[in-house]
Amino acid sequence: MKTLLVGYKAADLFERGKHGKKFTAKWLDENVLCHTLDIYHRHAIEKTHHIRAICSPHLPEGPWDLIKFKTGPKLMSGELSLDMLQEIHRLKPVKFELEFVGKERDKNDLLAKIRDNPERVRDFSAKWPASVPGGEKLMFTSYPGCFCHRRLDEGGLALAEVISRDLTSSPIPQSPFPVPHSPSLLDMGCGCGLVGFLIKSVVKDLSLVMVDSHSRAVEAANINAANFNMTAEIILADNGTPARMDGTFDVFAGNPPYYSDYRIAEVFLETAKRALKPGGVCYTVVKNDAGLRPVQERYFPNVEVIRRRGYCVLKSQKPM
Ligand SMILES: C[S@@+](CC[C@H](N)C(=O)[O-])C[C@H]1O[C@@H](n2cnc3c(N)ncnc32)[C@H](O)[C@@H]1O
């Protein structure tokens, strides 16, 4: 029975034995595929559950005998739940099972949205404006699942403002180095590309590499690059793109998530340390610098704190 597992911690929906044979050489069941939006989750599932997993912005084409979907108001946004449900409906599995964590009434409301108007195809993308001084207004596109879908993140904007200001004053403030011709920027955790594209709107000859672990972020960043007519290398990865951690970047920008006790911030800083050339500058942003500052000091000897928009931009230079 070809089964697709979808949604929050979808691998937990796998029931040993129920989906067919128990063990193959490597995977528990070749007929079961677990969908993830984030490549980090795909790697975790393959390692711990030994289920085949795929990371993609949209659900893989069938035919599927069974699609199981796990969601709920506390597990994912209502918009992402409905978007996923709409994709499942389009794939027309023989059987569909919903594991809803929440009130029965909310579950019925969600299902009714598809049942009451099955032919309606909703567009969940959003467009919103952002700009930095000296650059044109850019209309960003985002999707459910992307960080800050439908709105601008003030922390990301603060980061873009500080970096674009530094790159347009020579030498870089507090740095003995002039701004290089055609500087290179690694924007890690790029989301839909807010930071990198805003900086490029001011620094036109910026050579831009963006990386994110979320497939919908990468999809949005690609669409924004095309809409803005900007060139960027956009990579789906959760381990800091080893191929590009080559010590050649002039600037690193990171607005990491802080929900894991700085564990992800450390992945970002490790990447910055390896990706930057000697003398290159690392910028991160956080609401309150007290927690991140000692972490960043473990990777870079100096940390300067620049306050902007209620956020702290932490700036460090890689020693020569
Ligand atoms: C706070 S958001 C910042 C998005 C965007 N830069 C901004 O400022 O609006 C953090 C981003 O980091 C991504 N992320 C989380 N862990 C990651 C990892 N290990 N590697 C790359 N990106 C990661 C998330 O998917 C998310 O898009």
Describe this entry's structure for a reader.
The chain is 30% helix and 25% strand. Strands 10-9-8-11-12-14-13 form a seven-stranded mixed β-sheet, sandwiched between helices. It is of the alpha/beta class and 320 residues long. Helix 2 packs across helix 3 (104-115) and helix 7 packs parallel to helix 8. It folds into two domains: 3-115; 126-317, 3-Layer(aba) Sandwich (Rossmann fold), CATH 3.40.50. The protein has eight helices and 14 strands. Residues 40, 147-148, 153, 156, 188-191, 194-195, 211-214, 217, 238, 255-257, 264, 267 line the site of S-adenosylmethionine.
Summarize this structure as a short list of keywords or feature phrases.
8 helices; 2 domains; five-stranded parallel beta sheet; Rossmann fold; elongated; binds S-adenosylmethionine; 320 residues; 14 strands; seven-stranded mixed beta sheet; alpha/beta; single chain
Produce the secondary structure layout.
Layout (H helix, E strand, L loop, with lengths): L2 E5 L24 E5 L2 H10 L3 E4 L10 E6 L6 H14 L3 E6 L3 H12 L10 E5 L7 E5 L11 H14 L16 E5 L5 H9 L4 E6 L2 H14 L4 E4 L12 E6 L8 H13 E11 L2 H11 L4 E5 L2 E7 L3
Parallel strand pairs: 1-2, 1-4, 2-3, 4-5, 8-9, 8-11, 9-10, 11-12
Antiparallel strand pairs: 6-7, 12-14, 13-14
Bound molecules: S-adenosylmethionine.
In a few lines, what is going on in this structure?
The chain is 30% helix and 25% strand. It has 320 residues and is α/β, with parallel strands linked by helices. The strands form three sheets. Strands 10-9-8-11-12-14-13 form a seven-stranded mixed β-sheet, with helices on both faces. A five-stranded parallel β-sheet has the order 3-2-1-4-5, sandwiched between helices.
